[in-house]
Amino acid sequence: MKTEFLALLTKIRHLFGWLPGLLSSILMLCVAGLVAEMFSRFITKLILRIPGQKRGAFVRSFTMAMQRPVRIMLVIVFVGTALPVSGLPYDIMQATTHTLVVLFVLMLGYAAVVATRILSDAYLKRINGKDDKDDILLRTHMTQVRVLRRTTDLLIGLLTVGAALMTFEPVRQYGLSLFASAGAASLVVGLAARPLLTNLFAGMQIAMTQPIRMEDLIIINGDWAWVEEITSTYVVLRVWDWRRHIVPISYFLENTFQNWTHNSAALIGVVFVYVDFNAPMDRIRERLREIVHSAPLWDGKEFAVQVADCNAHVMTIRVIASARSAMQSWDLRCEIREQILAFLRDECPEALPRDRISHVASASGLDVMGDPGMLSPPVKRPPPGAYMGPRSGTSGGGMSMTDGGQGHG
Q1: Which structural domain, as residue segments, surrounds residue 199?
Q2: Were 213 and a residue from 72, 91, 117, 139 both cysteine, which residue would form a disulfide, CB within 3.0 to 4.6 Å?
Q3: Residue 52 shares a structural domain with residue 184
Q4: Residue 307: its pLDDT value, please?
Q5: Are residues 193 and 162 in the same domain?
């Protein structure tokens, strides 16, 4: 086939013999590229006709995404094959050949990157399409695939650029000279690229060990934040008010942080209610049970009402209720607070906390406040001067009281 193709190109070149030699050679190469384009379109149409809803759909989508780099590589191959019969001068032919080699290497790397992205997206789509998918498993695979995909893109890019540069003779010799002095060069490069390499290896370690995953809810600097994006060198955290924290990826291996969705997205929310000592706990507990059991955000697993603490003014009721996710737990707690406060205000006003001030009657029995109901019970105190302290010079240090309540020294 190659011989027939070259013979066809030679005939085409002879058809342009009435033109200048260089122009006829360029036209012949253009015809070779046009043949490659037509051949690529013909093959693409054949592949797109493959039936099937699963594998056939994947093959069709893969073909559509890869057609551009593959088409360019086919044009490069066809033009490179036609160069020997193009009649170009030797120096121009050498420069053209080298240019085509560099372009082919770059397009090969680009095609590898595109293929990696298509395969990873297809895998994630397959995981998302499962009806019985586990949220933790899904986020684990999303994190691993995305971090490893970015690392693969970086490695493919480095290898592609390196391979393209190695086609130049001066660069190849420079690389050999660097290899000869690899001791000093590696030390300098290692020190200069230490932050980049640290974050790069940290990204690979996070992809394997999974301390954080995509859409994990973590606490950082006192803020709730969701893991929005994990790159090779940094992590983007989305705060509830749409702010973004950009954190080096090595931070999550060198510092402690809270991950609220590491093993499960479900959380137990806690609500504290402060009530007076006169609060009817039976009615309050029953009302809280009705609120939680009727809430659609409650997952039906954990619920309890307990008097957790008390002080001189109020007693503290602790309500716990579980939810399927952190945000649902937050909304559930807000709903519990709103409804129980409305219940206390409307139906149990005696349960609302209040400050207590006790007024003691004066010695004359008159109450300066004018309200006998505000008086506390009388306090029985010893009369003034009843206790004079231990007798000086005695060893016992005791005290005797007379019937009248007067102490004798």
Answers
A1: 172-262
A2: 139
A3: no
A4: 94
A5: no
Check pLDDT > 50 for residue 381.
yes
Q: Which amino acid is at 74?
A: L
pLDDT digits (tens, 9 = 90+) for 326-345: 888 989 999 999 999 999 99
Question: Considering the domain boundaries, does residue 242 fall inside one?
Answer: yes
Query: Are 80 and 97 within 8 A, CB to CB?
Result: yes
User: At 374, phi and psi to the nearest 5?
Assistant: -90, -5
Residue 353 region, left (φ>0) first, then alpha (ψ -120 to 50), else beta? beta
Q: End of a domain among 326, 349, 372?
A: 349
Q: Mutual orientation of helices 55-82 and 2-15 as an angle, nearest 10°?
A: 60
Cα torsion 332, 337, 342, 348 to 10°: value is: 120
At residue 322, the pLDDT reads 93
Joined tokens for residue 87:
């009649």
- Give pLDDT tens digits for 165-180: 777 776 666 545 544 4
Instruction: Say what the pTM is.
Output: 0.50
Number of domains in the chain: 3
- Count CB neighbours of 276 within 10 A: 17
pLDDT digits (tens, 9 = 90+) for 240-254: 888 888 988 888 888
9-17: average pLDDT: 63
Residue 102 sits in the same domain as residue 158: yes
- Interacting residues of 336 by C-beta distance below 8 A, sequence separation 6+: 271, 288, 291, 292, 295, 319, 321
**Within a 13 Å sphere around the CA of 66, how many CA atoms are in the beta-carbon half?**
23
Q: Is residue 371 part of a domain?
A: no
What b/e sequence results for 329-345 when a residue is b if at least 16 CB atoms lie within 10 Å of its CB, and e otherwise? bbbbbebbeebbeebbe
Q: Note whether 258 and 277 are same-domain residues.
A: no
135/29 same-domain check:
yes
Using CA atoms of 399, 403, 405, 409 in order, give the dihedral in degrees to the nearest 10: -40
DSSP 396: S
45 lies in the same domain as 67: yes
Q: Say if residue 280's pLDDT is above 70.
A: yes
pLDDT at 401 over 60: no
Is 354 inside any structural domain?
no
In degrees, rounded to 5, the angle at the alpha carbon of residue 282 between the alpha carbons of residues 277 and 287 is 110
Between helices 21-48 and 2-15, what is the axis angle to 10°?
A: 140
Place of tokens 């890869």: 66
Beta strands 315-323 and 400-401 are unpaired
Residues 312 and 337 in one domain: yes
